[in-house]
Amino acid sequence: MFFILFSSLQPCSSMSRITMPRDAGPWGAGGGKPWDDGIFSTIKQIRVHEGELNVNLDDKDEYLIGISGFYGPVKGSDGLEAIASISFHTNKKTHGPFGDERGGGYTCYSSTTCPGKVVGFHGRSNGFLSAIGVHMEYF
Question: Ranges for the Jacalin-type lectin domain (predicted)?
Answer without folding.
Answer: 21-138
